[in-house]
Amino acid sequence: MGNFEGCNFSDHLKYIDEVILEFEQRFADFKELERDLALFMRPLTIQIECVKTEYQLELCDVQSDPFYKGRTETGMDFFKILGDRFPVLTNFGLKMGSMMGSTYLCESAYSTMNFIKSKYRSSLSDKSLLHAMRLATTNVDVDIDMIVKDKLAKNQ
């Protein structure tokens, strides 16, 4: 690697402290969600005292019910089987599952945008990028050849 004898690392401590502070601010929400994420992923093994009080009563019933004790599902799959019998936990599972799904959709759309707006197509306007994103992220099949033929036929 390199020789770091002449490098004064203390000059960079200020920047490292700024990065640490920025990370703490940006990811502070994850600390608040830590208990909820643990409940979502390990509902049968999490200690009841570790979850919010609003979930404790139903969670105690779920963990002591022989039907649920042997279940291997986790995450959204587990909360789907709770049904109407445990409405508070079911609602919690739906809330957490929707949060995961929307995060996936955002990340997927961002990846699609990066693919569309590559270095070879970096001159796209915001309007044309919006149209390209709509085409790329929709589930509707678009027959572009037919649309072009219809448009050409109308113009003649």
> SS-based structural class?
mainly alpha
Give the helices and strands as they follow along the chain.
HHHHHHHH
For the largest beta-sheet, the strand count, sense and barrel status come to: none
How far apart are the first and last residues' alpha carbons, in Å?
68 Å
Number of helices: 8
Work out the strand percent. under 5%
- Number of individual domains: 1
Total beta strands: 0
The chain-level mean pLDDT equals: 84
Contiguous uncertain segments of 5+ residues: none
Q: Specify Rg, calculated over alpha carbons.
A: 26 Å
What tags apply to this protein structure?
8 helices; flat; mainly alpha; 156 residues
Summarize, please:
By secondary structure, this protein is mainly α. The chain has helices spanning 13-26, 28-41, 53-64, 66-69, 75-80, 87-116, 126-137, 144-155.
What's the SSE blueprint?
Layout: H1 13-26, H2 28-41, H3 53-64, H4 66-69, H5 75-80, H6 87-116, H7 126-137, H8 144-155
Helix pairs in contact: 6-7
Protein architecture, described:
The chain has 156 residues and is mainly alpha-helical. The chain has one domain. Helix content is 67%, strand content 0%. It contains 8 helices and no strands. Helix 6 packs across helix 7. The longest helix has 30 residues. The mean pLDDT is 84.
